[in-house]
Design a protein that fits this description.
Elements (H helix, E strand, L loop, with lengths): L1 H22 L3 H23 L2 H17 L9 H37 L10 H6 L3 H12 L4 H8 L3 H21 L7
Helix pairs in contact: 1-2, 2-3, 2-4, 2-6, 3-4, 4-7, 6-8, 7-8
């Protein structure tokens, strides 16, 4: 735990310095931020979107937004700020994609998805996650995939740590319900 805290603090200092350089016009600073954080942003956006290729586009959009906002950045909490931008971009893309899909396409997807066999062999965690609301999906990805603690999750979501913990409990319950509806059995 101490190692992780030291690592986060050293990144925080490096990240704040890179943001100051970026605000001063040094484009190489954005490259260093991208190198340090793009995988984490990609994991988050893939978890939200359920599509790795689409997530790559959102990662690029996220770092462009970071560059555009570099003048307004306040040092001290770069990673939660970055992940909030990524989350917002991913959710915007998800909403946009849903609008473009149209009612007929969504109905077709649902019907073909319900036609899979009920034995649970075809279960896919990503499908179950994609059935959850965006906030629940984001929370589970932040906690389980990225390993953030509730204080860090709270900073990304813009809530208190105890609220993040309660939301995580509700998200896990919702995921369990979806998995059970898909034919998963806790005995498997």
């Amino acid at each position: 735990m101490e190692y992780r805290l030291e690592r986060i603090l050293s990144f925080a200092n490096e990240d704040d310095a890179a943001m100051a350089r970026l605000a001063a016009g040094d484009q190489h600073a954005l490259d260093s931020l991208f190198a340090r954080h793009s995988q984490q942003v990609h994991r988050l956006t893939t978890g939200i979107l359920g599509d790795s290729e689409l997530a790559e586009d959102v990662v690029s959009d996220t770092f462009l937004a970071v560059a555009e906002a570099s003048q307004r950045y306040r040092p001290g909490a770069f990673v939660p700020w970055l992940l909030r931008i990524a989350r917002n971009r991913a959710i915007a893309e998800l909403r946009s994609r849903r609008r473009r899909a149209g009612l007929i396409a969504r109905l077709t997807e649902r019907l073909s998805g319900s036609a899979t066999n009920g034995c649970g062999a075809d279960l896919d965690l990503q499908s179950a996650l994609s059935a959850l609301p965006e906030e629940q999906r984001t929370l589970l990805v932040l906690r389980d995939s990225l390993g953030l603690d509730y204080t860090e999750i709270a900073a990304v979501l813009g809530c208190r740590a105890d609220a993040a913990r309660g939301r995580a409990l509700r998200a896990r319950r919702a995921l369990r319900r979806v998995l059970l509806e898909m034919g998963w059995s806790p005995d498997n």
